[in-house]
Amino acid sequence: MAGLPLSFAEPILLLGLLSLPVLWWLLRVMPPRPRRIEFPPTRLLFDIAPKEETPSRTPWWLTALRLLAAALVILAAAGPIWNPETGAAGGSRAPLLILLDDGWSAASSWDARIKAADELIANADNDRRGVALVPLSEPARDITIMPGGTARVALRQFVPKPYSIERVETLPAIERFLKTTGDCEIAWLSDGVDTGRGPEFLEALSKTIGDRALTIYEGGTPPPLALAAAENAAAKMTVKVLRTGSGVAAGLVRALDQKGSPIGEARYTFAPQERETEAAFDLPVELRNDIARLEVAGERSAGAVQLLDKRWRRRAIGVVSGSSSDTAQPLLASTFYLTRALGPFADVRLGDKGAAQQVITQFLDQKLPMMILADVGTLSPEIRERISAWIEQGGVLVRFAGPRLAQADDDLVPVKLRRGGRSLGGSLTWEKPQHLAAFTADGPFAGLAVPKDVTVNRQVLAEPDAVLATRSWASLEDGTPLVTGEHRGKGIVALFHVSADMRWSDLPMSGTFVEMLRRIVDMSGYTSKPGAGVAADATAETVAPLHILDGFGAFGPPPSTAKPLSADFRDRATPEHPPGFYGPADGPLAVNTLAAADRIAPLETSGLRARHASFTNAEPRDLRGILLSAALALFLIDAVIVAMLGAGIAALLRRRAAPAALTFAIIGAAMLATPWPARADSSDDFAIKATSQTRLAYVVTGNADVDSIVKAGMAGLTLFLAQRTALEAGDPVGIDPAHDELAFFPLIYWPIVPGAAKPPQDAINRIDAYMKQGGTVLFDTRDAVEAPPGENGAAQTPGMLALRNILASLDVPELEPVPREHVLTKTFYLLRDFPGRFNSGQTWVEALPRGDDDEEASRPARGGDGVSPIIITSNDLAGAWAIRPDGQPMLPLTPGEPRQREFAFRSGVNIVMYTLTGNYKADQVHAPALIERLGQ
User: What is the rounded CA–CA span in Å between residue 471 and residue 483?
Assistant: First the structure.
């Protein structure tokens, strides 16, 4: 159609529009609206006479609505196609020069670009014009004019490159071509991304083309996305998501392992004006270390892929300290400085439990890639052999000096050391603290800034020999080594000749200390061959391409133009070094399209004197579906309007009102008749009863005689507590450990019945959790008089054997008889023992840590506010507490000593107060000793 980018497949059918006036005349008549009149049958006789009726007219707007629907049907039948102009000037005889952005940023919309270029070539071929193709990634390519058919074949051979292109480098070739050709029409299929030097290219391009016609294709496709700066932090892995567009957007970043299997997904969201956001993977460190590839879901480009190698693995590092002060003064300890320095890029596992050699053995069993020994001196021959074998297989051992290492003599150091140390004011002394010298250019610390405020006042000296210089990674200004290291097999041994705390130097307080450790961590699990100097080997080593990304982000074989690169390559991808994996398959080096600091920006082309076209406008669009859908919607609207004007809807509602009301009534009656499930509130009643007052609990055994005695005994103890103490407890509660909640009770009395079935494992697990969360269980075997003679007779009673069967499934701490100075003997009454019906049995509680420091470190930590989670007796306490309703004792005592029942009740009071007050009473017991110490 003239003036509109619209064409019709069957334009002859547009003659149907001439029938619209006839339709207007036919549709304007409408029968009169029916009227409802109530009358008797005889009324018909009076209306027999004919009566002339004038038909009603259809409203004009309803007729117009019907005509519009009919016109849409006719237009749809004619096959309308929206076919915009290509953007290139028509009617010209000058050759066409197509500039094609073919970097990674064009890959996501590559099909649209090829289609637009193909249409430009087709139009030029129809006008018998020549075509020249210029991929802006190939500055050395000759620019020649080709026929349309040849240009189409050449166009299909182009693929996007997996790296950023330098458009500026193609300008000399374009300028030579334009000088040779003269008049020329130029079309630039731009990706709209500026990865650097964009303004420089636009300014030079404007000068080069002069007054020639330029059409820029940009927009109309989703803006490209890119990934950069992946970081495996302490709690999660993050990666930057970049874009050039605007508006709210969201998506997913997928994480894959080396085999392409999915590991996880992370969501990212862009704010309206944001061009950079972050996706975070909250995964365990073991899974994060397996990630080899991050990619934007649905984005086909090399820039939307971030490859990860061993440098991104968050290595687990074991730290062992030989100093006992690390526990006494943790903020001054070497482990504190090491943990803070390693925390941003490694998972630190502190060996602060047990002896140093035990911890080292544990770390070796865990196969950690790196260990740090801070002032660990003499090691056993077995440990040294295991560490040496671990280093040969690729482990990294870092040692820090200290008083113990200065006196030790072993071979797990890179250089031979002198006995003793060198300090400020010592025999091997300097007059003032030494500063650090510049780092060697071929060492692992090359490029680090030398801190001027770091000084060293003590160090461990190395014996001078021929290899000392090659193994020195860092030195002081006087030339003595500060850090030495060497390869051993596939691993590394490094030594800091100062301590890891502030005693010998203030290096641990500097940022350089963090970067030095980061460099060493980067080498863990990443070294490949032995040698004297670490950096010398890395500099000489090159790695060949293994798997290379194409422009769409898919792996493929290395192209012939890909060249090997240095093993310490850290830059972005280039044509000679495309993105992908380089080196051995078991430890490849990752090269990415974008470096960590790279960012992308939109390319601003508004300053060029050019026409602008969109990629989406170059595609014809069939409008028949839209027109038919609109016509159908208008016909539905017309049907509804006619029904309303003819009172059809109202009549339908009147006819259906009674059935609808009846239906709703039936549904409502059914809902009311349906019984609602009764709320099971028995557990709520139990909780309310247990928490309304402090109550003692006992385990119901199922033996009626035992349960009745225990219930009476717990009631008697509750009454005695109310009479003698401030505790007014409620009635005792019998419980089933397998079903009832135990956390409501501070003390549970469990009578052991010989021959009874072992409680189910669920009950055992609940008791175990109750004890670990601060509760106390009092086990009473009630058989002290049945113990056979002998030293170990008390352990052979039937009740004790049944108790052992129960305790075999519980995590029971180390036990001991109640010591004389135990807080349990002084909680309320001063007691020497804890009698019940019997007085010959012992009472056992959790063992207290001994006074020996070395032994104390290995003793189990006690929780529960200082209260033993388990108490064991065989004196039948509940039997002594049990009283009849008339207040008389229920059971006799054995041997029946004077005041035995009184002391049994006092034992119960002490046990209850012990479980309720915990370390408060413990502090009160030790108050005299504390006051005595304060007075000295």
Answer: 9
Residues 6+ apart with CB under 8 A from 740: 686
Residue 409 has pLDDT above 90, yes or no: no
Q: Report whether pLDDT(320) > 50.
A: yes
Q: What φ, ψ does residue 398 adopt, rounded to 5°?
A: -115, 125
81 Cβ partners below 8 Å, 6+ apart?
6, 7, 8, 9, 620, 621, 622, 623
Q: Which two tokens stand for residue 342?
A: 């390693």
Residue labelled with tokens 């038919």: 628
Q: Is the pLDDT confidence value at 708 over 90?
A: yes
Residue 711 host element (H or E): helix 704-724
Look up the pTM and report it: 0.52
Return the pLDDT at 428. Answer: 46
One-letter identity of residue 433: P
Dist CA 307 CA 590 (whole Å)? 6
Report whether 185 contacts 94 (CB < 8 A).
yes
Give the C-alpha distances (Å, rounded to integers) separating 38 from 35, 42, 840: 10, 12, 109
CA distances from 82 to 86, 189, 921 (A): 12, 22, 90
- Cα angle 452, 455, 456 (rounded to 5 degrees) comes to 150
- Which tokens in the block code for residue 228? 């950069």
Quote the tokens at residue 110. 């590559």
Range with the poorest average pLDDT among 51-55, 211-215, 582-586, 688-692: 51-55
Measuring CA to CA, which residue among 431, 412, 410, 428 is closest to residue 420?
428
Phi then psi for residue 472, to 5 deg, are: -85, 120
Q: HEC string of 428-480?
A: CCCCCCEEECCCCCCCCCCCCCCCCCCEECEECCECCCCCCCCCEEEEECCCC
**Do 742 and 765 form a contact (C-beta atoms < 8 A)?**
no
Q: Name the residue type at position 590.
A: A
pLDDT mean across residues, the chain = 82
Q: Quote the CA–CA distance of 701 and 752 in Å, as a whole number.
A: 8
Would strands 185-189 and 434-435 be described as parallel, antiparallel, or unpaired? unpaired
SS (H, E, C) 745-794: CCEEEEECCCCCCCCCHHHHHHHHHHHHCCCEEEEECCCHHHCCCCCCHH
C-alpha to C-alpha distance for 230 and 543, rounded to whole angstroms: 22
Q: Which residue has the tokens 């196609």?
A: 81
Strands 458-459 and 422-423: antiparallel
Q: Which residues pair with 485 in a beta bridge?
A: 494
Q: What is the pLDDT of residue 540?
A: 46
> What's the burial of 143, exposed, middle or buried (CB within 10 Å: 0-12/13-18/19+)?
middle
Give 791: exposed, middle or buried? Use CB within 10 Å, 0-12, 13-18, 19+.
exposed
Side chain identity, residue 383: I
Q: How far is CA 698 from CA 543, 759, 842, in A?
A: 73, 15, 21
Whether 761 shows a pLDDT value over 90: the answer reads: no
Contact indicator for 714, 696 with CB cutoff of 8 Å: yes
User: Where residue 429 falls among pLDDT bands split at 50, 70, 90?
Assistant: low
Q: Are 242 and 226 in contact (CB under 8 A)?
A: yes
Q: Which of 769, 686, 800 is nearest to 734 (CA)?
A: 686
Which DSSP letter does residue 906 get? H
Beta bridge partners of 773: none
Q: Give the DSSP per-residue string, 330-384.
A: GGGSHHHHHHHHHTTTSEEEE--SS-HHHHHHHHHHTT-SEEEEES-----HHHH
φ, ψ (nearest 5 deg) of residue 104: -60, -30
- C-alpha to C-alpha distance for 105 and 162, rounded to whole angstroms: 9
Q: Return phi, psi of residue 493, to 5°.
A: -120, 125
Read off the pLDDT of residues 877-889 as tens digits, 9 standing for 90 and up.
999 999 998 889 9
